[in-house]
Amino acid sequence: MADFTLALPLAAIAGYLLGAVPFGLVLTRLAGLGDIRAIGSGNIGATNVLRTGRKDLALATLLLDSGKGAIAALGARALAGWDGVDPALAVVAGVAAVIGHNYPVWLRFKGGKGVATTLGVLLATAWPVGGLACLTWLLMAVLFRYSSLAALTALALAPAYAWGLAEPVHVTGFGVLAVLAWWRHRDNIRRLIAGTETRIGHKAKA
């Protein structure tokens, strides 16, 4: 097993760089749809990609964005060896991946909001918590048709789920991710309060 003090910064750096890959932007440009940041919310995530009308690209973005969070966490465990690894290593790498998605160096630190990446981290580091968070998101999305409200609810409840289903390091890490998500969604929160938030499936104009 690699020394933990060496593995921790390596996992954080690798997680950040992986998380910083802007899959939504790359996919929409390859599809000839231009810069996704010029439509809708200006976000590079799956919800804004869906506003182009391309459900296939939105699904691909969702899977890739969540996948990079999961890979960052699982890769950190592999870096140090699977047996007896401190779960903090995977949590730190996962949090770093979300920060990379939200503040990617390649895009002058202007990225997405990290919901899909965070869900990937939850599933990879404490799958029962991740599963409950995903179910919460789905239920809220079906009931209210607001992606932002679904995300805010799911991620706010993740630390509570972790309290009973995971370890203290997960509660702390998921709490950090929840705070980060709420901060990144502050404009959405204002629009939700004002009743002007865009609903899921709405095709935004460029």
From TrEMBL:
Its main location: membrane. Probably interacts with PlsX. GO terms for cellular component: plasma membrane. The keyword Transferase applies. Belongs to the PlsY family. GO terms for biological process: phospholipid biosynthetic process. It is an enzyme of class 2 (transferase). It catalyses: an acyl phosphate + sn-glycerol 3-phosphate = a 1-acyl-sn-glycero-3-phosphate + phosphate. Its EC number is 2.3.1.275. The lineage of its organism: Bacteria, Pseudomonadati, Pseudomonadota, Alphaproteobacteria, Rhodospirillales. Keywords: Acyltransferase, Cell membrane, Lipid biosynthesis, Lipid metabolism, Membrane, Phospholipid biosynthesis, Phospholipid metabolism, Transferase, Transmembrane, Transmembrane helix. This is Glycerol-3-phosphate acyltransferase. Coiled coil: none annotated. Pathway: Lipid metabolism; phospholipid metabolism. It comes from the Bacteria. Catalyzes the transfer of an acyl group from acyl-phosphate (acyl-PO(4)) to glycerol-3-phosphate (G3P) to form lysophosphatidic acid (LPA). This enzyme utilizes acyl-phosphate as fatty acyl donor, but not acyl-CoA or acyl-ACP. GO terms for molecular function: acyl-phosphate glycerol-3-phosphate acyltransferase activity. It comes from Roseospira marina. It is found in: Cell membrane.
